[in-house]
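Subject: mismatched residue count in predicted assembly?

I count 226 residues in my input, but I want to confirm that the predicted structure covers every chain. Input:
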Amino acid sequence: EPEVTQTPSHQVTQMGQEVILRCVPISNHLYFYWYRQILGQKVEFLVSFYNNEISEKSEIFDDQFSVERPDGSNFTLKIRSTKLEDSAMYFCASDTSSTDTQYFGPGTRLTVL
Amino acid sequence: AQSVTQLGSHVSVSEGALVLLRCNYSSSVPPYLFWYVQYPNQGLQLLLKYTSAATLVKGINGFEAEFKKSETSFHLTKPSAHMSDAAEYFCAVYGGSQGNLIFGKGTKLSVKP
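Triage response: the counts match. Full output below for your records.
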């Protein structure tokens, strides 16, 4: 069964460094999402992406964040200058339409020291 | 604005007992509602979804949920718990025009032998 994959599974970085989290959505999906879950808190929406552009973003998704689909398969989330409060589990998701079922990847645990 | 509230951050049941995980929603439009499960060190997996068809929705692994508009509830049930059901369960509602999900805080289910 097709699945969303994410790499790395765990990323440790120093405060102020840039990180890129990678996702490979399911191949025939058209809508892509990033969510994050700070330890002990709820899963929060960051951004949705369709047709090579951001379609919606939350207040969390400020200028430090960017997303890109650099080729036909990868979908990346970049954090330019990480802060301690960016430490969280980041989930990528994809679906075939904006009202269909979102399939989630296993997540990348980001630890900012 | 759409939101979900999950009552009880931790529920413990005995193997073979009824599982009841509570979710109440707030939505200004007819909601699309979801239950996701997260096993340790894994991503979010869809259990079931409600999309304004039948009010009783059957999902995977013997789970089901009933949409009750009068109570703004979408509680998840399973008649007989199994040890393998131990996981964290998230209720979610579509929040935006581009399909972003709004999650509850999650309920961790423990199953005692």
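Chain B touches chain A through 26 residues (CB under 8 Å). Marking this ticket as 'not a bug'.
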